[in-house]
Amino acid sequence: MLHTILTVILVSPLIGSMIAGLFGRQIGRKGAHTVTILGVFISTVLAAYVFKLFVLDGHAPYNASLYTWFQAEGIKFELGYMIDSLSATMMLVVTFVSLMVHIYTIGYMDHDEDYDHDNPYYQRFFSYISLFTFSMLSLVMANNFLQLFFGWEAVGLVSYLLIGFYMKRESAIQANLKAFLVNRVGDFGFILGIAMVFMYFGTMDYQEFFAGLNAQVGKTISFIPGVEWSVITVMVLLLFVGAMGKSAQIPLHVWLPESMEGPTPISALIHAATMVTAGIFMVARLSPAYELSEVALSFILIIGALTAFFMGLLGIIQNDIKRVVAYSTLSQLGYMTAALGASAYAAGMFHVLTHAFFKALLFLAAGSVIVAMHHNQDIRKMGGLKKYMPITYWALLIGSLALIGFPGFAGFYSKDSILLAVHEADVWGSGFAYILLLAGVFITAFYSFRMFFIVFHGEESEYVKNHHIKESPWVITFPLIMLSIPAVVIGIPLVGPILSGSYFADAITVFEQHNVLHEIYMHHFVEGGALGMALHGFMSLPVMLALSGVFIAWYFYIKNPAIPEKIKNACPRGYKVLEAGYGFDKFNEIVFVKGALKLGNFFWQKIDVKLIDTGLVTNTFMSVYNAARAMRTMQTGYIYHYAFVMIFGLLGMLIWVLW
Amino acid sequence: MFGLPILSTLVWLPIIGGLLVLFIGRDRPTVAKWLSLAVALLTFVASLPLWTQFDVSTAKMQFVEYSSWIPAFNIHYHLGVDGLSMPLVLLTTFTQVLVIASAWEVIKERVEQYMGAFLIMGGMMVGVFVALDAVLFYVFWEALLIPMFIVIGKWGGPRRVYATLKFFLYTFFGSVFMLVAFIYMYYQSGSFSILDFQAMPLGMTAQILIFLAFLIAFAVKIPMFPVHTWLPDAHVEAPTAGSVVLAAIMLKMGGYGFVRFSLPITPDASMTLDWLVIALSLIAIVYIGLVAMVQSDMKKLVAYSSISHMGFVTLGMFLVYDIVQNTGNAQGSVIGMQGAMVQMLSHGFISGAMFLAIGVLYDRLHTREIKAYGGVVNVMPWFGFFAVLFAMANVGLPGTSGFVGEFMVIISSFKANIWYGTLAALTLIIGAGYTLWMVKRVFFGAVSNENVASMTDLNKREFAIMTALAIAVVGLGVYPAPVIEVMSHSINHLLIQATTSKL
């Protein structure tokens, strides 16, 4: 029964996607959104049931195979399910956010400048987001590395298709190619990690992999002769490279800002709420392996902290409303990653969860603004939108408060857990990471409310004055409201179980000496509960930093708007560095893209064409040809010539033999 | 079927059918087309029992036919298939149908000769895969060059003479060494039976020389660096159907040669010289991949991509020795070998599809230059769908056949040597780079010019061809188990042969 339910959850979005995709013209717009929403709705309801079963009722983890992809040398390569608190939670988040995005899309994609109205782009879009839901579900439900990789690549494919959805725009198709290739760099590491799993564990199955971990402790692998590295460290780091691609960690973050070329609903669903958290999910899923390598944990912690800080900093100078939110996503992904590095996997997943709601909310609210602004995304053209769009205003405010970690909001609990965990952790580099993360809190508040104030409170721009701006239709505002609720309240019931470790007890392994969350639980939660934590939060450093960020944003952009310009003029070099995104793009362009093309041209022109073809082949060919030319003169076609030669030949042979 | 021996039917039905088309179809193109299609379909249907009646529990040759042919030299008409060759036979008969269909409206001159050439070629290609007598094998191997030579030389592009000569000389040059090896082994064993060759003892020097002779022959066919330069030229000049047959089937003969001849006949030499094949395979994957990146002609790009993908075939086949050396047992090498075989099938589908897709474009605008296109998907949405699907398969996306073989070979090669795996895995980046960059420039973007704007979407015939290939690509990708099961015993047997010393 459970097996069937899981299969229905997995497959119904796929069926919806195929119907909408292949028969889009026949069933029309209404048919397409009905069938896909129905599919995702079924999944959501059943996922809620599964969530109740595994998280609330504490059902024992369910591990079963769906079918055998193939079998060789006694190793099964299967597709299957591993359902426990971790996957059940992700399933519910994915299906719920996806459902909201599906509904929202009806309003958002109704009119589109890039397509004629009779073009089935609308059906195609629904087909893609349902396909994405299927792919993401197969990723989180997987019980083995093979399926993980399948889901991993499948979400990448849909992301590719959706970033390039406006395929007539050069910027969009440039962005999706870049996204795919950068992700492939991550996958390069990921597949090598899987190859190591295959080599040392002889299995693809998670359970067998976990069971075999202890036997590998102390083993070494040598990439460079004479240099031995721990097998487990190399393996988990290679897998983490995959996570760096998918979850956009420095230096593989470069694709995410440009992914905003895609329509806003998918920015919310794929590039904020779900797909980009796949890397975090993967590390949490494999926590028994990561726990064994302090080196890997340190590395992860530092990468996460760097991403959190430096990507947040870039959010300050963005003027495209979606890009502000995109950089904030990058920065928040950094927080989640840092949590993993501090062995606070549960806190990382907690932030994945709360972030899914408030970031989807932020994106969809931003999308609502974009719709109202007739697909204008520049915040400098907005201003004073509060009175025109009250629902969107409140949605964006709630989302922003959750994002900056205002006490009581969902984001507060998850972010505070991470900060406390990193503070508590004694992995190498945790002191440094903590400072970056703390500074990041201030930056987050600053850029979030900079955007908020400019868009809603600033002076009305000419554009706003001259255009008829109105609140979005209910299909857009309904998802906003639905997402606002968890963005506010979800932290309160969850923080206790997360910190105590009971929430993910069956899914996440943390060693006693790494268990910082439990420390936090004892010191910060036991006494006053969630409410006490929030109250105490008002006096804590992070919240003070956040509030000062809000205040300074207000001061800079409402009270005294001349200041930002002054700062910009005061240090133009610093501004340039930020504007260039620290030069990552330029570096990649020159070294990797141009480098590969140069190398390819060299191989082709100098070796293939010049050395092999002209040098070896044509010269050989020409000498054969010339020889043949010489021989050809002997073939005259006259019988008497041949007869003549034959007779002489025979004579010659006779003489030779007889002598 | 009708009590006829099935393998002979598969060889001779298309050959006789092809001759019939040549005579009956003269000046009657419609008759020629329908007759050819009927023959191709009939052959395909006739080949299906190979799959359904195949005994997966043995590595022995099945559907064997054996009779004397040239008794003076102990040459026999000896046919049979095992798990290695059977899937390739099906790939051939399947591709034949698509090839005939692909030429339907495109070829207007001397239709009967074109169709006849392909049918005859088809029978001979089956012959190569089912022949168990070396002379018979050699006859098919060489004879099928002739129709291909004619197809490229007659219906090819402007530089067709250069391309055909290059193609012919290269492959002929390679095969001669193989013939010499056959004759040597005949003198040693008194038989031309391939199975006898596999069983006969051979000294190290002889093995090395035979191995090298085979290597030259098969490396040209696959093709491997540095004897690969004939392929891009041949593809560029060949008509669509010629490219499809070349990429989907003829290249596979080289790979097949390694598993049928090199590994079982010269196991000790294979062990000694495996580094050579592996090095050339890795060069194919990385170096050729980079060369593919800078091509401006779509056919050249896909041709280089073919070479790069065939690198996985040869890599997967020769991993066993390093795995044994590195880990002490052969665990993992079966997966590499299976990966190589799956990669052959998969590449047959994908490269066939890619060349057919280029053919679809070429039929409309008569150019293969990437820069002549742009935004094609706006005017040809269905074609865009298929093209992106096949491109993703070429990139090795899970769920398509392209992933299966690459994945198996990568994990297996990592076990043989960390660096093999690392270099092979670079294809994830390089392959995506050249394939999707081409897709971007050809299919995406705004409609770039009036010519593109005038293009019409797939007609029913083209749609059917693309659908058949899409089903094959996705089917093999989602559920490879049956194919792997079919090959399983033969591969185990092959690995025993390859690791059992003949000294």
Structure description:
The complex is a heterodimer of chains A (659) and B (503). Chain A is mainly α. Among the domains of chain A are: 293-571, no CATH class; 584-658. Chain A has helices spanning 2-22, 24-56, 85-108, 121-141, 145-163, 170-201, 206-216, 231-246, 255-258, 264-273, 278-285, 287-290, 294-315, 321-341, 345-372, 390-404, 410-424, 430-457, 462-466, 474-489, 491-500, 516-525, 529-537, 541-559, 562-570, 572-579, 584-632, 639-658; strands at 62-72, 75-83, 220-221, 229-230. In chain A, strands 1-2 form a two-stranded antiparallel ribbon. A two-stranded antiparallel sheet of chain A has the order 3-4. In chain A, a hairpin with a 2-residue loop joins strand 1 and strand 2. Chain A starts with a helix and ends with a helix. By secondary structure, chain B is mainly alpha-helical. In chain B, 75% of the residues lie in helices and 3% in strands. Chain B has helices at 6-24, 29-52, 86-102, 111-130, 134-143, 145-155, 160-189, 194-199, 204-221, 230-237, 240-265, 267-293, 298-317, 320-327, 333-365, 376-379, 381-395, 401-416, 418-425, 427-442, 450-453, 460-478, 481-499; strands at 62-70, 75-81. Chain B has a two-stranded antiparallel sheet with strand order 1-2. In chain B, helix 4 (111-130) packs parallel to helix 11 (240-265), helix 13 (298-317) packs antiparallel against helix 20 (427-442) and helix 15 packs antiparallel against helix 22 (460-478). In chain B, 63% of the residues are buried. Classes of the chains: A mainly alpha (659), B mainly alpha (503). Chains A and B meet through strand 1, helix 5, helix 6 and helix 27 of A and helix 7, helix 12, helix 15, helix 18 and helix 19 of B.
